[in-house]
Amino acid sequence: MKYLLQKISFFNYKDIIMNIFNYNEALQNTIELDIISKCLEHDGCWEPYQTEISKEILKDGNNIFIDIGSHLGYYSLLASTYNNQVISIDCNETYINLFQKSITENNIENIKIYNKLVNKEFSLDTIIDINSYIKLIKCDIEGYEIEFINSILVRLEQNKIENLIIEISPELRNNYSEYIMKIKKFGYFIYDLGLSPQRKLNSLTTLKSLNMININSVENMKYYISN
To answer: What mean pLDDT, rounded, does the chain reach?
Structure first.
């Protein structure tokens, strides 16, 4: 299968060349389809609202960003562009190989990739010191987010993680509400980023645009998620 080189310009700050899937070729040959590649080729971005919020959190640089389920490295490359220390974790060899090509072709030195599966045995402590202060973690691992949250509960309780962006898939797990409320009890505010539909990036988005969820019970949170 042939792959594409796509120029990504994060808010006109710095151009990055990304290796992505050739979506149309994959479609014709019934090979792996990748909607992220399609969006990058069409719009030059993926999940624009989440991208804008991530940039606002990381734009000052010199912080730690951890990308759980890094895929082709979109969010990792965004964080790298703004001079942050990046730890990227995925277990798909194809994704990792394409991501590594992007790192090499852009001469990037502040990203480390780890080929690891996030499951009940996963421990972030084997990758980064328990006392490290983490500016942002993004977690998107198709239903295994609960296992990841379990692995960082001590860090969350000690407020060693400032921001956590986590995708939830209610059709895969029915206990997200319990974990969301557990995190809230550690002093975190809960926000809903929504589905972040495709559009062009807006450089004017700020953290003030976030929609805070003021829910204080597991049952009400479960109802909110189900709707």
So the answer is: 94
| 3 is a domain residue | no
Residue 176, in any domain of the structure: yes
With respect to residue 19, please indicate whether it lies within any of the assigned structural domains.
no
* Dihedral of the alpha carbons of 123, 144, 57, 156, in degrees to the nearest 10: -50
**pLDDT of 176:** 95
pLDDT in tens, 97-131: 999 999 999 999 999 999 999 999 999 999 999 99
Q: What letter does residue 57 receive in the DSSP assignment?
A: H
CATH code, domain with 111: 3.40.50.150
The answer to whether position 57 is within a domain reads yes
Q: Which residues contact 85 (CB under 8 A, 6 or more apart)?
A: 63, 64, 65, 110
* Helices 176-185, 218-226: inter-axial angle, 10-degree rounding: 130
Summarised one tens digit per residue, pLDDT across range 6-45 is 999 999 999 999 999 987 776 666 555 688 999 999 999 9
CB 87 within 8 A of CB 127: yes
CA distances from 135 to 9, 57, 91, 101, 164 (A): 23, 8, 23, 26, 9
Q: Which residues sit opposite 1 in a β-bridge?
A: none
Helix, strand, or coil here: 134? strand
Q: What is the pLDDT of residues 147-176, one digit of tens each?
A: 999 999 999 999 999 999 999 988 889 999
Amino acid at 88: S
Query: 51 is in which domain, residue-wise?
Result: 44-226
Supply 91's token pair: 């277990």
The count of domains in the chain is 1
**What six digits make up the tokens of 38?**
């399609």
